[in-house]
Amino acid sequence: MITVNIKKHLDTAEGVLEAHYELSITDGEFLTLFGSSGAGKTTLLRMIAGLEKPNSGVIDVDGEVWFDSERRINLPPQKRSIGFVFQDYALFPTMSVRENLLFAAENPAQRRTVDKLIDLVELSQLSDRLPATLSGGQKQRVALARALVRHPKILLLDEPLSALDPAMRTKLQDELSLIHSRLGVTTLLVSHDIAETVKLSDRLASVVSGRIERLCPPMEFFSPQTLSGKLQLIGEVLKIEEDFPAIIVTLLVGSSVVRTVLSSAEASELCVGGRAIISTKAFNPILIPLP
Amino acid sequence: MESEFISTMVLTFKLAAVTTVILLIIGIPLASFLVFSKMRFKSIIETIVSMPLVLPPSVLGFYLLLAFSPASAIGSFLTEHGIRLAFSFEGLVIGSVLFSLPFMVHPIQSALSGVPKTIFEASYTLGKSKLQTMMRVILPSIRHGVISGIVLAFAHTVGEFGVILMIGGNIPDETRVASIAIYDEVESLNYALAHQYALTLFVVTFAILLLVYTLNKKSLGEIR
């Protein structure tokens, strides 16, 4: 059980923000911090890791105090049982894939798990390669495996898939989900990708200007109206074109682009970049598996 | 004559080697300080480190000579403890270290500032101390900067003239290095020997630089 109750002054583009995060994460849970950029998600992750210092508050992990401003406790990152995956992977350039993992190992037992982890992320063929010779997806897998070597109590993922193309992203989401269910490590993910959040997380914490506004299962957050007999898809509005007398709206749903026709009254509340739910009535879905 | 030539060359490269080793030991922490410190007076230290780039060597030599003289506070303290720095090899080492400081610090400093912050942080989150991170992660990845620093500091010390002339003079086997010897031989119209010194310096420094740049290119190629 991880409990966080911390405050921090954030310097954002809109001025100083008094962030206050209150959150508890149960063992083995996959929790996603969801929100627009600049909301303070990454800062929260970095404070849990000990890479940044909160102004006040307490961070407690399984009864072990990692930070307590009143008792003047602030464990350095080295003393915290964490695995951190950075957005830019942060692989050590002069070490091979295996050496990157071995560097993290603290004892012979952990050293023995290195090969298993390399297998788990399907990099056995590439274990002697230097990071610079790997693709983005492969680098991200190395970073993930490296973060798992020390059997951390909590795995912290800072938008780990944001730099990848959609196909690779989907594949790695599946892998991440598989690894989480196999190892059962408590995981905290920073994301602003809806598909990723829905697919991976048990719960979602919506972060808005330095505060956690809602904490609920992701589907409840993205699709609050649960009308039966309807298919609901959530998409991002890409384009709104006027084609008299109707309006054509183009949306991105997952990795597919969908076009739909609306009346101008219906389209009046939509804006480009905003989110929308597409739902259809009297619906008889046909599902065809793809190769 | 021949043995004097050899002992002068040996002294020249001994001075450069000792200076380079000392500079390497102080250069890496100093460069890290200049890159990572948020201290208010950092720019003053940065200026002092860079001063030898623009200051005439005779100015540095002159003040070192004053400091080393038994009439000064530092000099009298040293004399009491039986240390004589003016016109001695040890004095030359101190002068060379100060004078070649920017040539060691600047390449390391610029290589260090190019290392992403997350590389340091990744190592910390994997339980490694600052020292372990520096030795095992950072130094290997900035080795081309360190090698440039070593080469430049070494070559610059071999070629040093003004500071040595001021604080070392021209004592065979103690302070008479090749650049001084060239000047001395030309003064006494002994062009053949001056040429021998000059050509040797030319060839040896060319060979060192060529070797290091070739190795450096190879090791960079490995990473890319």
From TrEMBL, chain A:
One GO MF term: ATP hydrolysis activity
Keyword Cell membrane: yes
GO cellular component: membrane
Domain called ABC transporter: residue spans: 1-234
Record-linked InterPro entries: AAA+_ATPase (IPR003593), ABC_SmlMolc_Importer (IPR050093), ABC_transporter-like_ATP-bd (IPR003439), ABC_transporter-like_CS (IPR017871), ABC_transpr_FbpC (IPR015853), P-loop_NTPase (IPR027417)
Keywords annotated in UniProt: ATP-binding, Cell membrane, Ion transport, Iron, Iron transport, Membrane, Nucleotide-binding, Transport
Short name of one Pfam family: ABC_tran
Protein name (database record): Molybdenum ABC transporter ATP-binding protein
From TrEMBL, chain B:
Entry-linked InterPro entries: MetI-like, MetI-like_sf, ModB_ABC
Name of the protein in question: Molybdenum transport system permease
Cell compartment(s), UniProt: Cell membrane
NCBIfam families recorded: modB_ABC (TIGR02141)
TM regions (residue ranges): 15-36, 48-71, 83-105, 145-167, 197-215
Function: Part of the binding-protein-dependent transport system for molybdenum; probably responsible for the translocation of the substrate across the membrane.
SUPFAM superfamilies per the UniProt record, alphabetical: MetI-like
Primary subcellular site in the record, as a coarse category: membrane
One GO cellular component term: plasma membrane
ABC transmembrane type-1 domain: residues covered: 9-212
Membrane topology recorded in Swiss-Prot or TrEMBL: Multi-pass membrane protein
GO MF terms, alphabetically ordered: molybdate ion transmembrane transporter activity
Family according to the record: Belongs to the binding-protein-dependent transport system permease family. CysTW subfamily.
Keywords per UniProt: Cell membrane, Membrane, Molybdenum, Transmembrane, Transmembrane helix, Transport
